[in-house]
Amino acid sequence: MKRTISIVFFLCTIIASTFGQLTIEDIWKHYTYYPFGISKVFHSNTGTSMYIVESNKVLQIPYSKQKITTILDANGRIPHEIYSIQFSPSEDIMLAATNIEMIRRNSYSAQYYVYHISTDSLHLLLSDSIRIQNPTFSPANNTICYFYNNNLYITNGIDSPHAITNDGAYNKIINGMPDWVSEEEFDIQQAFAWSPQGMHIAYIQWDESTVPEYTIPKYGSTYPELFTYKYPKAGEEPAQVRAKIYSVQTQKTSTIQFPCTYTYIPEFSWIDSNRIAFTLLNRLQNKVEIAVYSLLDNSCKIVYTYTSKTYVDIPTYFTHIEGTNSFIICNDSDGYNNLYIFTYESGFAKKITQNLGDITDVYGYFKESNTIMFQATNNNPLERYVFELNLQTGVLHCLSDEPGTHTLDVNSLGTGWIREYSNKNPMVTVYIEGKNLEQNREPFANYWMQDVAKNMKFSTVEFFTIPTQDNEKLNAYIMKPHKFRKTKQYPVVVMVYGGPGMQKVTNEWNYDFYWNQYLTQHGYIVVAVDCRGTDGRGSNFRKQTYLNLGEKESYDFAATAQYLRTLPYVDKQNITIQGWSYGAYMALLTAAKYPDSYNSVIAIAPVTKWELYDNIYTERYMQTPTLNPEGYKNSSVFTYIQNIKAPILLAHGTADDNVHIQNTYELISELIKNEKDFETLIFPNDEHSLFGKNSRIYLYSKYIDFLDNHSKSNK
Question: Has this prediction a pTM greater than 0.85?
């Protein structure tokens, strides 16, 4: 249940279409009107340029207006498309990932080619062509550490690899990469790190031997292939997590003993060559501690403790201030996420941000300028601005001024960055910026998007607020059909998510845009609303759903329907609620608890009761089923299923490893038992996102058919 952000880089010109209707194929097959670009930017170690992969070529793009050059043309030299790249410390060697195989939603293995830039030589990293994960150069030389078959290895690319660990085994021990639930919920992409001088490797080990297994059948043969993996559901014991240090010189490994009890290690980072900091989290995730381990004397000290009445937010954005005994961290102790400086010895805290609303991302501390770059709402939950704060002078500089959403991708020195900007216009603009550059590049603006919107007469996005009977105001937006008339009544589709700390109502372009336009072109009003529990409005608003997921959110979505029925241009008998994942859960729960609120329901890959979802996510907000039985009962769709009146369209993939189809199957049983009206779309071997071959086309075709069948006034 996370959002993926990509940097869009525009390299070509699009000719705007003439006025016409969007098609489902435009949106979900050909991606006709989406911004063209790349998903990854690779910054140089020198801080003067960046690299991208375009048409299987690696391009070097200076931050200044210098010529774009081709570093490697892999066409005809590498049999597969380059997926990602990385450079050695001196940038004379490049690793290119190719022939990837997705492992989980955000992780993959790949074959890696080694490219020596000066000699234009190219060869496979490992001669037997195996797929590996996360090869990472030592900061000191060209030695590479990588993950394979649950173990870590070191290679210089010439001699045979040396195994750092040998106890890794599938569904038992994982060294240096996260287990399924830690990757999903803590967004851990890699769990090993070189020390600054390359003398040690710190890594996290997950022992999941006792974690319960879940099995997913993969269809296509006479007997389905069974995929079994470790998935701890709410109330089940998680994997045991240990922190270890490997010495490159002695080839010995030691296990760190922390002076506190903990369950999870969601973050860690080297402070210097002799010290490393670990974020330690208890099982209920209401207490976080920072432990600093010293290699000089094998000591370990707790330098920071924060306890919440509800839950703590991860990541903490722990950042060591180089050359000092201080660090920066983020917490919400004053009701908003703010940045603080703490000292290792005394624990003294100094708040360094204020009156900026919530800090929503931190891009890093940069020694040369003594600054920290971060993103914040600037007291408007619909917006995201980026800032640079000088720690010596206290001067705060806003790097963005246009209303909308700004994100940064900054190089390691803080001297150059990509700033992506978008709003609901729609248009996405990419700026290449930096410090001490005489001439920055012109922005790459996707002006064609505005032309398409104008020529195809797209609906505009109008922001407004929805009042509730208990005096809350919910942020929302509305999109009305072309040639909208106040004297006509239109059916409405309400798009919901509602999960803790997430938002649908922001001033930015996102991938919902074109489907929303499709609906408006077919005569529907589209509304999105952020309920209580969502992000951008401080911790009091975000955390009031604690221990009772679904209670206040469903109330707010019912209030949304009630408010919409007061509008003269809304068809009061044709209001649909639609959601995916947590949003699907909210759609079903609202229809069950408030059966007169919506006239139809579309639920894609829903959670139906929290005992069926993973323990890290669920226990963060609900504690365990043993500690909070009433909360789990009240949050379950099954508790209120007999009340449902609205027809339901259910969709789910059988290979969904995130929200198991078990949720939908058990719901179907209860719907049948209670003689409820529903339709089901099952996608064999498809996962949570339903991006299998033609899946999206089929799903959204049935989606619009379902709407039309239950919105007769729209004909």
Answer: yes
